[in-house]
Amino acid sequence: MNILAIDTSSLNATVALMNDEKVIGEYTISNKKTHSQVIMPMICELLEKCSLCMDDIDVFATGIGPGSFTGLRIGIATAKALCQAKQKKIIGISSLASLAKNVSDTEKTICPIIDARRGDVYNALYKNGVCIKEDRAISLDELFEELKGKDVLFLGDGAIVYKDKIIEKMGDNAYFADIHNMLSKASSIAALAYKRAEQKDFDDYHTILPIYLRSCQAEREYNERVKEIKEN
């Protein structure tokens, strides 16, 4: 089974190819170009380097968030288009679950956090390979209170943005993933997708959607203006 995994939910654009349980290639770019400019050239180059073509792919896997609203739409639209064009299967994977997969061999509580701005983060918690808190939007202060006294391994762009605050609040209980595992990796998405594909647990390309967890900034500002008008 050949799986092509895509993730554009963060600053990184990342793609990976997996044959059964073996990663045969992975390509990650982090630059100022938009994901829409680089994702298809990355896919084509990776396929060529691995001596495969699009018709060889059995399953397209994509990160579905939470994360960058624009980035998510680019990755999901790309995967859906390829899936439809080639009449293959598609699987959507939580961006937080894929981050946790990067460091799944630890005994510490795994805490992937994605910056949601305004002091909030997107977060889930994992322990010994089990999700103990589902994907959610939560304030940092609430999260620290929940994690008090636990040895916690932080990763994700939120762990970079809020590193000083994490150390201040968590002290010696705070650990951080190494730089190679800190951000999203398409190979982790591919590995999680492979497990689902073995169980024939596929998504429908007509209905697969991003996980936003909260409305975008423009929508929040609009709702706030409407609320002010009603109150006045």
- Overall mean pLDDT: 92
Main beta-sheet strand count, sense and barrel state: 5 strands, mixed
According to CATH, the homologous superfamily of the largest domain is ATPase, nucleotide binding domain
Number of strands: 10
Please give the domain count.
2
Run of helices and strands: EEEHEHEHEEEHEHHEHH
Radius of gyration: 18 Å
CATH domain topology of the largest domain:
Nucleotidyltransferase, domain 5
As a percent range, the share of strand residues is 25-35%
CA(first)-CA(last) distance? 60 Å
Q: Provide the CATH top-level class of the largest domain.
A: Alpha Beta
Strand order of the largest sheet: 3-2-1-4-5
**Count of DSSP-assigned helices:** 8
Q: Indicate the low-confidence ranges by residue numbers.
A: 216-223
| Overall form | globular
Structural class: alpha/beta
**What's the architecture of the largest domain in CATH terms?**
2-Layer Sandwich
Account of the protein in words:
The chain has 232 residues and is of the alpha/beta class. It folds into two domains: 2-94 and 184-218, Nucleotidyltransferase, domain 5 (2-Layer Sandwich); 96-176, ATPase, nucleotide binding domain (Nucleotidyltransferase, domain 5), CATH 3.30.420.40. The protein contains eight helices and ten strands. It has helices at residues 35-49, 69-86, 95-102, 140-147, 157-161, 163-170, 186-198, 217-231, and strands at residues 2-7, 13-19, 22-29, 59-63, 89-93, 109-115, 120-127, 130-139, 152-155, 174-176. It is globular and about 50 Å long. 42% of the residues are buried.
